[in-house]
């Protein structure tokens, strides 16, 4: 009997396959199509022939753990213990799966804020837990009255994705304070903070769970080098958590992957000595601003984009079709692929919204925008 009977081919695969069939510009899947930093490539080429191809320690390459600790101290003024509070994972998705399957038991409830990234619910279901999906407000900000009303004695965890995929919104200080007020009443609830877009933020600063003194002792934070360094195919992420939580997660991790691929860990560890994460944000802000400027005279309505490399648009002025059908027509008739937002909701809430990925070359964005402005 299947543990995931309702899981079918992901919308990302469907849209990318359709885009390939029709030769469309693919702004659906969330990965860059521009070259990696030449410095990272040079490091990779040089170390490839070195003796770095055997297992690293289970928790991660010590040098990389040290570099993460230094970056966390620099960015968030949080001191983390490299021996007991950091774990290198095979991408943030594996880290999220590990965290959920370590702490969620049969019948436990996990609060997930919709629209939500598609890996959360399957991870909860495999653990035997019950996903409790709670819709964000229409502007994709959190609705704390709604969140609090769903909490029961069975609630074990809440998943917070900030900066948010697919909406591109960022939590404010007031949002964190509201969550802290709620969770003070429920000491049994753990927080899983999915912060994979932490270094892709714009005018509003990213507030990390790393900085929340009230919540740090009960929070697991997932980060992604794939997103931050535009090497999604390397599948290297990491978790930060207090020692008592990390101790338990390492038990699951060691039998899930044991250790993450060594080459990427060595290359990233050296690259972290030269990369400037503030430059990452600047680069993506330029792309966001370019894409928004190119679409300003189109019939698409642009939603706020505080962070991530996704731009959500409303197409009400163009069509009243459901978003899945409209997204398919966008590919087959207009040559641009996007992701319909309804697929990120449990109940397929359809507000006529699409998600475009702007982690693309300027030439790709210009060509896509020309087609979109012609609709």
From TrEMBL:
One Pfam family cited in the UniProt record for this chain: Aminotran_1_2
GO cellular component: a single term: cytoplasm
Domain of life: Bacteria
Coiled coil: none
Cofactors, names only: pyridoxal 5'-phosphate
Alphabetized GO MF terms: kynurenine-oxoglutarate transaminase activity; pyridoxal phosphate binding
Chain ranges of the Aminotransferase class I/classII large domain: 25-371
Keyword Transferase: yes
UniProtKB keywords: Aminotransferase, Pyridoxal phosphate, Transferase
InterPro entries: Aminotransferase_I/II_large (IPR004839), Kynurenine-oxoglutarate_AT (IPR051326), PyrdxlP-dep_Trfase (IPR015424), PyrdxlP-dep_Trfase_major (IPR015421), PyrdxlP-dep_Trfase_small (IPR015422)
Family in the record: Belongs to the class-I pyridoxal-phosphate-dependent aminotransferase family.
Name of this protein: 2-keto-4-methylthiobutyrate aminotransferase apoenzyme
UniProt organism field: Flavobacterium haoranii
Record lineage: Bacteria, Pseudomonadati, Bacteroidota, Flavobacteriia, Flavobacteriales
